[in-house]
Amino acid sequence: MQFFSGRFKEKASNLILDFHSSIDFDKRLYRYDIMGSIAHVRGLALKSIVPSSDAELIEKTLKEILNDIIGEKILFSREYEDIHMNIEKILIDRIGDAGKKLHTGRSRNDQVALDMKLFTKDEAVKVQAQLLDMIDLLNETAKKNLDTYMPGFTHLQKAQPITFAHYLLAYVEMFRRDFLRIENAIKLMDTSPLGSAALAGTTYPIDREYTSKILGFSSPTWNSLDGVSDRDYLIELINSFSLIMVHLSRFCEEIIIYTSNDYGYIELSDKFSTGSSIMPQKKNPDAAELIRGKSGRVFGDLLGLLTTMKGIPLAYNKDMQEDKEAFFDALDTVKGCLLVFYGMIETMSIKRETMLEAAARGFMGATDVADYLTKKGMSFRDAYKIVGEMVSFCIDNNYTLDNMPIEQYKKFSSSFSDDIYAEIAIETSVERRESYGGPSQRSVKQHIDFIDKFIKEYSSVIEKYKLNDIL
C-alpha cells in the first residue's frame, strides 16, 4: 500500500506488485466492497465522525463507481493491489479530500473480512437454492416411480429389490443434509467484522450494532482479533461443498454404471452425452464423468486452505490472501456441477422394463425365502443355511427361486408350500418392507410428504437470509 504511505522512500518493485497483487481475482468482490464502504460511511456520519455532507458525497460517488464497474467503464490496476484500494483510489480521484475520509476508523483487515463474509453469505444462499431445486426434482421424479422396481445393491452385487423412488430418495437425504450444513454455516458466520479495524478496534465512537444491522448481520463479532483473522466459515463451507461433491460423484458413478450397455437402467439425453471420434456407436456419459472428476478439485481447495490457516499467528497475515482463490474455485466448481447435474437428471430416460427384468434375476428373494421359513418356526440361522444351499442348487441346475419346482423346494424343507412363489414376488418383497424408511409405497410416500414440507419450509428460509442490499 505504498501509494498512500509516507513510510517508504522507494517505489515498489514490479516483481512484488505482481506477486502480492490480488486484484485479478478479488475484483469480483467489488459490489460487496462498495456495500461495506457505504455502511461504514453512514456509521461515521451517524456519530459525526465525518460531516454528513461528505458522507452523502462519498455514498453517491461509490454508487456511481458501482454503475461504472457494471458498465465495464473502469479498468482496475495492479499498482493498487486489490479491489479495496482500487475503489478507494478511484473515489479519491473523483471527489478529492472528501474521499480520503472514508477509511477513518477502518483497516483493510476488517474491510476484506467484511467483503468476504458478505460475498460468502450471498453465494452460500445461492448454493442452497440449487440444492433445494435438486431435492425438489428428485422428489418429483420419485413420485412418478413408486412402482418402478429395480435391484438394490451391496458390494455392487444384487441384494434385494427396491424401487427407483426409494433409490432417488436416498440421494435426497444426502442433499438435504448438505443443505442443512450450509444453513448451519450461515448462522455461525452471521456476524459483522466491520469495526474490528486492524486488530484492536478503533478509538472512534463507532456504532458497530448499527453497521451490522444495515448490512443484514445478526450482530457484530465479539472479538476484534478474531474478527479480522477468522476464516473458519470459508473452511466450513468448502467442507460442505466437498460433501456435496462426494454425493454428486457417487450419484454420477452409478449413472455411469446404469447407462452402460450391460445395465441399461437409464439413458441420458443427447444434450448431456458425447460421442467418440472413432467409434460411431458410442454415447458417453461425459457430464457425469466430469462431475465425478471435479470432486477432487474441490477436495484440493479444502486441503489447501486448511494448510494455509493451520500455522498463522493472530491476527491478520498476508497468507490469508490465499483464502480467496481456493474458495472462489470451490464455489464456482460446485455451482457449475449442480447446474449440469440438474439438467442431466431432468432429461434422462428411465428404463422401467429393463430395471424390472434385472430385479427378477440374481436371487434377490433369498432373504424373503429365509423369512418365510422363520415365520414357519425355524430359526433364522437354520433358514439362512438352507436357503444358501438352495441358491447353490439353483445355480448348478439353471433354476431361479421363482421357477424352481415346489417338489424341489420341499426336498430342502417340508415347511414349503405353493404360497412361497407369492412370497418371493418382487412386488410382495418390496411392499412387505414397511418398516420406517423402507422401500414400500406407504413408507416412501411418507418420505415424499416429509420432503415436500421441507422444501416449502426452507424456501422461505432462503428468502430470509438474502442480503439487506443497501445499494
Task: Explain what the structure shows.
- This protein has 471 residues and is mainly α.
- It has three domains: 2-104, Orthogonal Bundle (Fumarase C, Chain B, domain 1), CATH 1.10.275.10; 109-155 and 162-203 and 222-358 and 447-465, Fumarase C, Chain A, domain 2 (Up-down Bundle), CATH 1.20.200.10; 366-423, Fumarase/aspartase (C-terminal domain) (Ribonucleotide Reductase Protein R1, domain 1, Orthogonal Bundle), CATH 1.10.40.
- The chain contains 19 helices and six strands.
- It has helices at residues 14-20, 23-26, 30-46, 52-70, 83-95, 108-143, 164-189, 208-214, 224-229, 232-258, 286-309, 322-347, 352-359, 366-375, 380-397, 406-412, 420-423, 426-431, 441-465; strands at 149-154, 157-163, 191-192, 219-220, 266-267, 349-350.
- The strands form three sheets. Strands 1-2 form a two-stranded antiparallel sheet.
- Strand 1 (149-154) and strand 2 (157-163) form a beta hairpin.
- Helix 4 (52-70) packs across helix 5 (83-95).
- The radius of gyration is 30 Å and the shape is elongated.
Summed up, what is this model?
The protein is mainly α and 471 residues long. The protein is 62% helix and 4% strand.
List keywords for this structure.
single chain, 471 residues, mainly alpha, Fumarase C, Chain A, domain 2, Ribonucleotide Reductase Protein R1, domain 1, two-stranded antiparallel ribbon, two-stranded parallel sheet, 6 strands
